[in-house]
Design brief:
Layout lengths: L5 H11 L5 H9 L1 H6 L7 E6 L1 H20 L9 E6 L14 H27 L6 H8 L4 H16 L5 E6 L5 E2 L14 E5 L1 E2 L10 H4 L8 E5 L9 H7 L5 E5 L6 H8 L16 E5 L12 H22 L3 E4 L7 H14 L9
C-alpha cells in the first residue's frame, strides 16, 4: 500500500466503496495517510437514514471534507450513488415514522404546550368575532415547526450533491410511506442516470422549485425510472415524469401496477382508441411487479376474482407491448405489502449495482 501510486490507490478505494459507506468509514479510521488517500472515494456510495440529527451531521462532514480537499488541491469527494430514507414530518398530515417514538412524543408535547398557550387567545378571538385569519395562525405555528429546518438541510444537501449523482433512491418513512410536502429539488441533476421513488405521496411537491422553462427538466439524463407508488396514490403521475425525465428508456413500476394499466398504456402509446403519441417515446423496456394478492383468510371470493382479472388484463397488456416491439416483463407479484419485503430487496439491488434491478 505504501508503494502504490496515489491514482491506483484511489481507483482501488473507489471500487471498494460501494456498500453504502461502511468501507469508507473503515478507511477513514485506518490511518491518517489512508484517510487522506481515500478522501475522493469514501463518499462514492452513501446510504443515509436522513433523520434531522444524522442529516445535519453528515452534511457538515461532507462540506468539511470538500473544503479540505479543495484547500489541498485535490479532487472534490463526489457522491455517485445515494440512498436517502426520509422521515415523514408534516404538521398538517401528522406523518411520523412509527420507528421514531421520541419524535412523536416531542411533537405531542410541543402541540400540548402551544394549545395551552393559545387557549386565552382563542377565547378572545371568539369574543371579538373570531377575526384571526388562517394565514396568521399558520404563520405563527410554523415558527417552531421542526420540519422547516429539516427540509432546508435536505435541500442544501441535495443541491450540493446534484452535479455528481449517478443513482438516487428516495424512500419516505421506515414502515409506512407518506408525504414530504416540500420542494426538495432546487436544481437539475445533470448526470443522474437512475432514479427510484419509494412510497411518496404527492411527488409533485419535490419539483415545485424547478422552473422547467428556465432551468430545464430536473432529470435530463435519467434513463431508468423505478416507481413504487404509495397505497393512497391513484395514478403514477406520468405527466410529471415525462416533463422531468424526457429521455426515459427503462420504466419499472412495483406494488400496484396491475391497477394502472390504462395509464401505462398511454405512457408507451398503445392505448385503445385513436392513436396517441406516447409520453415516453424512447422507452424500450417496461418492468411491472403486481401488488400482493388479497389475504388468504378473506371469506369473500370477490377480491380474488378481481385480482385474477387484473392479472389477466396485465398479461394482455404486456402482450400488446411485445407486439409493438417493446420489451415488457411481468415480475413475480409481491407476496405481501411491498414495504415488508420489497424495500430490503431494493436495498440489495442498490448495493449490488444499479443494473441488477433491471435484469429480471
Amino acid at each position: 500500500m505504501d508503494t502504490l501510486p496515489l491514482e491506483i490507490l484511489q481507483r482501488i478505494f473507489t471500487l471498494a466503496c460501494t456498500d453504502g459507506s461502511h468501507t469508507g468509514i473503515a478507511l477513514s479510521l485506518a490511518s491518517k495517510s489512508i484517510r487522506a488517500a481515500s478522501r475522493t472515494a469514501r463518499f462514492h456510495s452513501i446510504a443515509l437514514i436522513a433523520n434531522p440529527r444524522c442529516l445535519q451531521s453528515f452534511l457538515a462532514l461532507y462540506e468539511r471534507e470538500c473544503e479540505e480537499a479543495v484547500s489541498n488541491g485535490e479532487d472534490k469527494p463526489r457522491i455517485r450513488h445515494l440512498y436517502m430514507t426520509f422521515l415523514c414530518i408534516d404538521p398538517r398530515k401528522r406523518y411520523y415514522s412509527s420507528s421514531s417514538p421520541s419524535l412523536r412524543r416531542a411533537k405531542a408535547h410541543q402541540d400540548t404546550q402551544e394549545s395551552s398557550k393559545d387557549a386565552p387567545h382563542k377565547d378572545s378571538g371568539r369574543a371579538e368575532g373570531n377575526d384571526r385569519s388562517p394565514r396568521k395562525s399558520q404563520g405563527r405555528s410554523s415558527i417552531n415547526d421542526p420540519s422547516l429546518a429539516y427540509y432546508d438541510t435536505a435541500r442544501r444537501f441535495l443541491q450540493l450533491v446534484a452535479p455528481d449523482l449517478w443513482n438516487l433512491i428516495i424512500q419516505v418513512g421506515f414502515q409506512y410511506g407518506g408525504g414530504l410536502h416540500t420542494p426538495l429539488f432546487t436544481t437539475p441533476f445533470p448526470v443522474l442516470r437512475e432514479f427510484t421513488l419509494v412510497e411518496l405521496l404527492n411527488p409533485e411537491w419535490l419539483f415545485d422549485a424547478i422552473d422547467v422553462p428556465t432551468t430545464g427538466p430536473a432529470f435530463p439524463a435519467v434513463t431508468h425510472l423505478h416507481l413504487l407508488p404509495h397505497a393512497l396514490e391513484r395514478d403514477l403521475r406520468l405527466n410529471l415524469w415525462a416533463t422531468h425525465a424526457p429521455h426515459l428508456t427503462h420504466l419499472r413500476v412495483s406494488g400496484r401496477s396491475n391497477e394502472m394499466i390504462d395509464e401505462l398504456a398511454l405512457a408507451v402509446g398503445i392505448a385503445q382508441g385513436p392513436p396517441v403519441p406516447p409520453k415516453f417515446p424512447a422507452v424500450r423496456c417496461l418492468l411491472i411487479q403486481p401488488g400482493p394478492p388479497p389475504p388468504s383468510d378473506d371469506r369473500c371470493g370477490t377480491p380474488f376474482e378481481e385480482y385474477g382479472m387484473a392479472l389477466f388484463q396485465l398479461e394482455a397488456f404486456t402482450e400488446k407491448c411485445r407486439n409493438a416491439g417493446l420489451k415488457a416483463t411481468i415480475l413475480p407479484a409481491c407476496q405481501e405489502r411491498f414495504r415488508a419485503t420489497g424495500v430490503h430487496r431494493l436495498r440489495e439491488d442498490w448495493l449490488n449495482g444499479e443494473e441488477r434491478a433491471w435484469m429480471d
